[in-house]
Amino acid sequence: MKFGIFAPIPMATVGAPETVLAAGSALLPLAQDEQDRQFLFAERILTLADQVGFDLCLFAERHLGHDLSAWVLASALAPKFRRMLSLVAVHPGLWDPVMVAKIAASLDRVTRGRMAINIVNGWYDEEFRMFGGEVLAGDERYDRATEFIDIIRGLWTSPEVTHHGEHYNLENARLLLKPGSSHSPEIYSVSAGEKGREFIAKCCDWWFINYPKEATSTAEVMAGIKSCIADMNKRSARYGRRVRYAMNPFIGIGASEQDAVDKTLQTIFASEENPDRRKIEVRMMPNMRAGLMGRPEDIIAQLRRFEDLGLELILFKMIPSTENVNQIGQKIIAVMN
Q1: CB–CB of 49/57 below 8 Å?
Q2: How confident is the model at residue 199 (pLDDT cuts 50, 70, 90)?
C-alpha cells in the first residue's frame, strides 16, 4: 500500500496556524529577501514526509484563493523529493491540453519520472469565469475531460496529434519534449454518478473513491468502498482496462478513537480565530469515520482491511505538523512497510 499527503496550503489543510497566517499575509508584499511563509511551511512539511516514507504528495489547486499555484509549488519542491511522486491538480476548461502536456513532461523530467496529474472537473463557476474558463453542466464536463486526456496522452506518446472534437481542435500538434519516465504519467481523478464513473473506467488510471459521506460508522464506509470497487471493476473490464483505487480519509493518532477525534478538533478550533465549531464538525466528521482515528495498532489493522478490499493508496487528510508527519511515518508507514 502507498501513502500520500496533501501539500499544506490554506485550501487543502486544516489545523495549521502557518496556513492561516499565510492566508492572512497573502495580499501583503514581502520584506526584502523574505520568502513566502506558505512556501517555507510546505517545504518543511513535505521534505520531512519524503524522508519518513510517504509515497505521494497531492498539490491541490484553488486559483481564486490564497494558495500558491499548484504547478509553481510542485516545480519548486518536487525536485527535492527522493521518493515521493508529485500529483498536480489540473482543471480541464482552465488549461489548454497541449500546454499541460508540455508542462507535465517538463516536471516529469526534473522529478526523475515521478509526477502524475489529478483531473479536477470543477464546480466553482466564478473561479472558472474569472480565469478564462467555463464550468460545464452535467455530463458535458466529462466529455471535455475525456478529450483533454486523449490529447495529452497522445502528445506524450505520438510524434503528432490531430484531434477534432466537441471541445478541442488540433491539427498536427506536437511536443518536442517527452516525459522522463518510460511510461506516460498516470491520471488520477475523483468522480461520482453514472457518467463520472464511466469517465473513470474509460480514461483514468486511479480513482479516488467517493465513499458515502452519509455513512455513520466505519462498517458503512467499508461497505460503500466494497460496492464502489465491485462496480468499477465491471465497468473498467468492459474497456479492457484496470483502474486502481485510492481514498482520502482523515487520520489522527491518540490513546483511543475518541481521544484522537477530540485532539484533532481542539487543534483545528485553536488554529482559527472565532471558529465556526458546528461547520467544522460537519465538514470533518465524515472523513473521520473511516477507522483511522485512534491507536497506531488499530489504524494499522484498519489499513490492512482497506488493503484487502483492493485499495492501493491512502491519501491522508491530517493536521500538517512535523509531529504528526513524524508519528505517522514512524508508527504507521514504517510498520505497514
Answers
A1: yes
A2: very high
Q: Convert the pLDDT of each residue in 284-332 to its tens digit.
A: 777 889 999 999 999 999 999 999 999 999 999 999 999 999 999 999 9
Cα separation, 207 vs 118, whole angstroms: 10
Three-class SS state of 308: helix
Domains of the chain: 2-336 (3.20.20.30)
Distance CA 240, CA 125 (A): 35
Complete DSSP assignment for 216-242: -SHHHHHHHHHHHHHHHHHHHHHTT--
Instruction: Say if residues 251 and 3 touch (Cβ distance below 8 Å).
Output: no
Residue 174: CB atoms within 10 A of its CB come to 13
CB of 189 closer than 8 Å to CB of 245: no
Per residue in 110-133, pLDDT tens?
999 999 999 999 878 888 888 888
Report pTM. 0.95
For the cut 80, the answer to whether the pLDDT of residue 138 exceeds it is no
The C-alpha atoms of residue 210 and residue 289 are separated, in whole angstroms, by 14
DSSP 248-283: --B-EE-SSHHHHHHHHHHHHHHHSSS--HHHHHHH
72-111 burial string, b = 16+ CB within 10 Å, else e? ebbbebbeebeebbbbbbbbbbbbebbebbbbbbbbbbeb
CA distances from 124 to 136, 139, 163, 211 (A): 10, 16, 28, 22
Q: For residue 15, what are the CA distances in angstroms to 20, 198, 273, 275, 308?
A: 9, 36, 11, 11, 31
What are the cell numbers at 220? 458503512
Phi, psi angles (nearest 5°) of residue 173: -75, 145
